[in-house]
Amino acid sequence: MNPAARSPATTLLPLAAALLTSFSPALWAQAASGDGAAGDTGKAALARVTVTGSNIRRADAETPSPVQNLTAADIARSGYSTLGEVLQHLSANNMGSLGQATPGAFGAGGSGISLRGLTVGATLVLIDGHRMASYPLPDDGQRDFVDIASIPVDAVERVEVLKDGASAIYGSDAMAGVVNVILKRSHAGTALHADWGQASRGDGRSLKLSGIRGFGDLDRDHVAGYVAASARRQDAILLSDRPALGGSDWTRYGGEDLGLVANPELQVSPRTRNYSLLGKLTALLPKDWTLSVAASVLGSEATQVGLLNTVSPSGGITTFAFGPDHPNPQPTALNGTNVIDPATGLPVDQEFGDLPAQRSRTSTRSTRFVTELSGGWAGWDLQATLGLTRVATELTASHFISLPALQSALDSGRYVIGANNPADVRATLTPEGRSTSTNTLNFLSLRASRDLMPLDGGALALGLGLEYSKRSLDERFPDGFATGAQASNIYAFGVGKQTISAAYVELAAPLTRQLEVDAAARVDHYDTYGSSVTPKVGAKYRPLRELTLRGTYAGGFRAPNPVEAGVSGSSAGYLPPLVDTALCNLVKPGQPCDIGVGGTQLQLPGKDLRPEKSTSYTLGLVFEPNAAFNLTLDYYDIRIRNQIVSVGLFGQYQIDTPAAYGTQLYRVNSPTTPNAAPTGPDDTILYGTYPFINLGSARTSGVDLDMRLRLEAGGWGVFTPQLQWTHMIRYTIDRGPGQRYEMAGTHGPSFVSTNTGTPRDRAALALTWARGPVELTGTLNHVSGMRVEDASYNLPDCAAALSTIFPNGLPAAGSPLCRVPSFTTFNLAGSWHVTEALSLRASVANLFDRRAPVDAFASGSTGGGVSSGGAHYNPSLHQEGAVGRYFTVGASYRF
Fold this sequence. Notes:
With 895 residues, this protein is mainly beta.
């Protein structure tokens, strides 16, 4: 790399070091001199708060950006027992979100949020305002996300959701918004908690034990802190115990009986384990400086059950020497096309029902150490933070068939297809493999803010900062897959490093008592591609005491990550039906093409990738006529251009014109020559590769409504209704001339993540009643329906999307399967403070036992969806309807 490319980093690092080393002498100089003015300034600064979306400490927490606040009480009233469940039900969460119950996900075992439906890669998740290392198994083998499933809900003080672009404040990834999980700062005394739950059908039992012990008092002892620990386990729920969610006979809808038998081991909800140990220590230093140290170890474990093993020559080449040590895929000599059964002399074409279903167990440990020094000096609020974070995931792949082991057992006669083979012989066919993937993020952050001058509405405030971070990804699959002995539809690896240095400036200008204008700008330098500069401006205007108008404009970016630009590769995952147009033109010119594309398509890294860029706007109002009522209404509009996309998104286009997209297709008669023309009717596609490229844009817009009301009813208690509603107006994908598609209200884009779909509306309506020591909350959660089609993947109507069920076209009267119905559930949660020390609680999720609607196009459900004989529901949107009514009871004791 040339010196010019390194210059931003070499400029920022000395400044960072100088500022950091200046903090400590300044602190002790104040202590020695007894400079009361400086101390008073520090006290005034510490009386302010830092709000998500701004690095300036301020007394007024209402900024021009829309921020949704979820307190610990809100989380407890939701009826959910994990933070992942709570955040999955945010009204702003949409297409591309991930949950632990999606077995077809590349990020198996993790849980991620997708604000505005712009995928988990465009939502930044922070812990206490700072970054955390991402889950080391990226979504779709591409997108970074922080695993929210591992964060213990009992340690959370609140969650702030910034529903606005924030790259000018936080850097890369914050194009759709920010989820900031704020942990408890302190705790008084000791609290012990126990919760037990199970589904109404008697399965899915859960048990959670947790406790927190606080010590010290900042005012009295100048030292305070806490230690918290928790452990939770939940048993699996089998699809066989929810028979209405499965089945392959679609004749009652006018379709085909596919004759597929579901694997009896398939799970609606996986077995999970979670544990956590957190500690935080805060010490007051001389002259109101504060030192805090936080450390945590978080663990999660999930076991996903997949399909039965199948070997078939019709599947094309399925195994490759393809991994970090050989990133250019090479088909193995022994493959799915040429495993020979000596009893017949023919290639094996068999589903192995005598072997257990494929299993993947992920065991993740996240470690985080953050130390922060903050205080005031010469009128400045100063903060220096050092963070060391790491996530390690051990993947155990069990019961995946090894082709060499199978061929050897067939040749020796130890294994005979269709016979009652001994268990020890069957075990040798599916050797267990293990690998450990890691993602590390270490950072240094230096922030300073102060008041510059008085204005009519208050003080003009300035914020400055420097950041330096290093991240390293090492994602691996077990050796059996990397060498090509075994194969999985969900396979990925990635190795890469990045060094990022950044500087930012922010201004908050209350020009008058009615008008405030904020502005921010940030420059980030990546050693992998160069620099990005992002601006943001916002304003809020209060024409009346009861009414505030607000709006923002924000630039944003997402840098190419180590997977997209490093040494990486993955299998394609889910692929809707594609046809071999070139072969059809040779053997049946002028006729409809029905020759499918077989084999595997492999993802390769991109070359000379540029960052994605975004522009976003918000415009809204806050109406608060009194302390009892608050209403916010905000319009949002986000456009991401220069997207980093997998060529697989282009479906039939990249098959028909492979050279235009960098696709390389390999055929039977030319296995080493890419994109050769077919020479005969048997010259089918064996496999293909394609890269990441910068191409196209996505734009989404919509409206958020948030309303809260508090009604004092005297002896009847207090009633608190709340409403959060998000309506998506548009979600448009533009991939070039003739490739502009509207996704809002449809099941597209189906190639992204776990084929979630893009519903237009999500809402939550809650009513809380409190009287004395008793509180009761009922919550309605609603997700709108959507059309079963995906024009972006050459599935423009229901007939194309459901061609597996309706191979001869839809019935004349259409089919109810062409629309996934809306889904509404009701949760009930209550608590009773028996004494000051003892409290009891209970909740029922999905009180009325609403069943998940039929989604015949869902591919992320257990068993791979309809085409594989799996479940026909959408786990990202309708998981509660798959589990059914779920009871939880708990108790807490404080002393």
